[in-house]
Amino acid sequence: MAFGALGDRLQDIFSRIRKKGRLTENDVAEAMREIRVALLEADVNYKVAKDFINRVKERAVGSDVLQSLTPGQQVVKIVHEEMTALMGQEQAKLNTSSKPPNVILMVGLQGSGKTTSSGKIALWLRSQGKRPLLAAADVYRPAAIRQLEVLGEKTNIPVFSLGDKVSPVEIAKQALEQALTNGNDYLIIDTAGRLQINEELMLELENIRQAVNPGEILLVIDAMAGQDAVNVAATFNQRLEVSGIVLTKLDGDTRGGAALSVKAVTGKPIKFTGSGEKLEALDPFYPDRMASRILGMGDVLTLIEKAQNAADQAKIEEMEEKLRQARFTFDDFLEQMQQIKKMGSLEEILSMVPGVGKQLKDIQIDEKQMGKVEAIIKSMTPQERENPALINGSRKLRIAKGSGNQVQDVNRLLKQFEQMQKMIKQMGDDNPLLKARRKKKDKKKKKKKKR
Questions:
Q1: Rounded to two decimals, what is the model's pTM?
Q2: Given Cys at both, which of 53, 354, 394, 442 links 298, Cβ 3.0 to 4.6 Å?
C-alpha cells in the first residue's frame, strides 16, 4: 500500500506522544528526530525532510502547544498541516483554455506509464462530461501506437494516428486540426520516452510544444523510482516548464518519498495519481486527503466518491440505513465485495476509513482469493447468511465441501466477519461514512433552498 511503511512509523510515533499528558521540548525534539529518520527511510529528499522537520519543530515547541490540554494532538495537527502544505496545500486542477481544444502534452521516461495514463485521463475527462481525443505520437517504441489504440477501443475514446513513419511534430499538428474539426474539447498527446533523459528527446518535445502550444504539460513519473523520479522531474521542468505531475504505480510504493518530495523540489503540483492497472484507477490528487491517509486519519471523502461511482444511489441509501442500524449480513458482505472490486484495491479502500486500516492490519484478505470467499458465502443457506451464529461444526463441514475449501477457510472467514460486525456496532451513528454522507446531503439541501 502507498505510504504503508511511512504511515506505520508515523502513527507509532504519534501514539506514544498522545499517551503523554504533558510534552517537554525534549519530547518534541525526540519525536522530530524519529520523524526525520522515517521520512529519509521513505526516500524523501534530504533537504525536503530537513526543512519539513524544522517547520514542524518551530511550531510544536510554542507555548500554545506545550501548555495545551492535548499537546500530542496539537503536534499531530501541525504535522498534518505541514505535510499538506508540502504536497501542494490544495487540489491542482487541469488548466483550461477559453478556446478548446485544451491540449495536454504527456511527457516522461520510457516505462513511467505515459500511454496508460493518457488513456486513464481521457476516461476520467469523459466521466466529467468532456469529449477527449487521444493522439499517438510515440513512433519509436514498438507497439506504442497499438497500445493506445487498444485503450481507445476499450474506453470508446477516439485515437488519432498516422503510423510510425510520420514525425511526432506533424502528428501533433494534424491531431490538433482533427480535434478542432470534430469539436473535441481535449486533445491528449502521448509522446515517446527514453530509458534516460537525452538531448534528442528534449528537442523533440520542445518542437511539439512549439507546434501545438499545450495548455498543460503533464510529466508522468514512476513513484517506485523514489529519488530518481524527483531528479527526473527537476530536469524535465527545467527544459519544458511542466505544469503538473502524474504519479504512477503509487500502489506499488510503500515508501512514498516521490509524492512527498516532487512538489517541493520542482514547485509543480501533483495533479493525478495512478494506483493500479485498471483504467479507472486514476484519482485527482488532494494533498490534505493524502496527508490524512499517511497519518492514519483516513480519507472519507475519497471513499464516498469512489463508492458513489461504483454503486447506484438506491444501493447507497440502503447500505447507509443498514450501517446506521448496525445490521450487516453475509449477503451485504457479498454485495459490498462486488462494489469493492469496482472501487479499486481492498487495502487502499480500508486505508481510507479512519482507524479501520490499523484495526484490520493483521487480517489478511488476499484479493486473488475473493473468489474463494464468494464460494464459501454462496454455499451457506439464506438463514446462515443472515445469522452466522447458526453455523456449527457440521454446517461448517458442509459449507467447506460445497465451496471446495477447507473448514479452516470457513473458520477464518467467520472470524473476519465477526470482527467487522463488532466494528460496525461500535461505530453506529458515529460512523464517519454516515457523518460525511449526512453533511453532503445537508449541503445539497441548502443549495436547493437558495435557488
A1: 0.71
A2: 354
